[in-house]
Amino acid sequence: MHPLPPLPRRTFGLSLLAAIAATPAPAAAAPRRRGIPLGFDNFAVRAMGWNARQLVDHAAELGCDAVFITDFGPFEGRTDSAALAETARHAADRGVRLELGSWSICPSSATFRADWGSAEEHLALGIRMARDLGAKAFRVILGNHQDRLGAGGIEARIADTVKVLRACRGRALDAGVKVAVENHAGDLHSRELAALVAEAGPDFVGVNFDSGNALWTLEDPLAALETLAPHVLTTSLRDGQVWPSERGYTVQWTAMGEGCVDLPAFFDHFERHCPGVVVNVETISGFARELPCLDAAFWDAFPAMPAADFARYVALARRGRPIDPFQPPDGEARKAAEQAYQLDDLARSIRHCREVLGLGLRV
After folding, report:
1. Are 37 and 279 in contact (CB under 8 A)?
2. Structural domains in the chain plus CATH codes
3. Is the pLDDT reported for residue 25 higher than 80?
4. Sign of CA dihedral 279, 284, 286, 289
5. How far apart are CA 180 and CA 262, in angstroms?
6. How far is the C-alpha of 280 from the C-alpha of 193, rounded, in Å?
7. Positive or negative CA dihedral for 320, 324, 328, 330?
8. Lateral strand order in the sheet of 205-210
9. β-bridge mates for residue 290, sequence order
10. DSSP string spanning 332-356?
């Protein structure tokens, strides 16, 4: 046999590079599974107008462990125990856990509606519905940012909410259902919400933690979670971008993994301190809100903002960047565009949560 002639150096180098390029790259290591259930808040796909059964079916299609129905609309007026039991069976057949919520139980909030009777009647109805669905908690809200500026400030709204909660304590304990109060639309700073829970009674009151809404109260979501984690019963989570703007800071919510929130650190803390709590993705993206904190009048709504909390927010904003809003077309195509946008936002978020963050129980 004759030995092969040596390759010229350049030819050898090119051959080596070609061989390296042809070698399959090692597969990315699968994320460590955290053992945290994964679901979505129905408001993430609000443009679809789906009923409860359709929401359950979509959760199953996405491979989710749960769906969080945060208003009564998807039940299409069928809130009797028999109808809810039927919905619960439909969810169980598909391996989907149900969680339930509704809106304001603060009678002095501008957001309160009497659609379901008085605040106490509304809360009582939700507790009973949650029991019938097999949910362990019922999510409610106080109101929104404007409640910080009304007569008596947020303290008066907190007092009214606590009164309603205490009036239904026995009912909640008998049903085995806790009430999860959300930090909603800039109404409650995390420290105020923790104080509300303590005053109302942590034996039956806890928190629905909304990471996006924390950005509207000038809080890094991780800092807010550190305050509220001992009380978290349910969640409505999303990522977000925060950046300095002309009058202060601008916030735009995003799909998971597309913002500046430190999600790995967030879920490290969540895993340690919120065992068994479902991560429900609530993508509400595509629009920006400026928080004009360079205007002195802005601070009338936050007279007792802890300096350390604001400092962490400023640090978060240094990692953020401006992004463009979503602009659907006008006319008949608008609804279809919004539906497609919301479905895609949610699907990307669920995929990121599962494949990057290691969330979800289903493989």
Report:
1. yes
2. 33-355 (3.20.20.150)
3. no
4. negative
5. 25
6. 20
7. positive
8. 232-236, 205-210, 178-182, 137-141, 97-104, 66-69, 38-41, 279-281
9. 250
10. THHHHHHHHHHHHHHHHHHHHHHHT
Q: Per the confidence metrics, is the pTM higher than 0.85?
A: yes
Report the residue count for the chain: 363
Concatenated DSSP letters of 181-201: EE--TTS--HHHHHHHHHHH-
Q: Are 234 and 180 in contact (CB under 8 A)?
A: yes
Lookup: tokens for 65: 């462990």
- Are the C-beta atoms of 66 and 38 separated by less than 8 Å? yes
* φ, ψ of residue 187 in degrees (nearest 5): -80, -45
> What residue has token string 């509220």?
228
Q: Alpha helix locations (H) across 94-152?
A: 119-133
Pair 233, 180: CB distance under 8 Å: yes
Strand, helix or coil for residue 34: coil
Task: List pLDDT tens digits, range 281-294.
Answer: 999 999 999 999 99
Residue-wise pLDDT tens digits, 130-187 = 999 999 999 999 999 999 999 999 999 999 999 999 999 999 999 999 999 999 999 9
- For residue 35, report the phi and psi dihedrals to the nearest 5 degrees: 70, 25
3-state secondary structure of 311: helix
* Token pair listed for 228: 């509220």
Neighbouring-strand partners of residue 241:
252
Judge contact between 218 and 291, C-beta under 8 A: yes
The answer to whether the beta carbons of residues 172 and 198 sit under 8 Å apart is: no
d(CA 217, CA 220): 9
pLDDT at 14 over 60: no
What average pLDDT does range 297-318 have in this prediction? 97
User: Taking each helix axis from N to C terminus, what angle separates 153-167 and 119-133, rounded to the nearest 10 degrees?
Assistant: 60
State the DSSP H helix or E strand holding residue 182, giving kind and residue range, or none if neither.
strand 178-182
3-state SS assignment for residue 186: coil
The three-state secondary structure class of 116 is coil
CA distance 182 to 207: 6
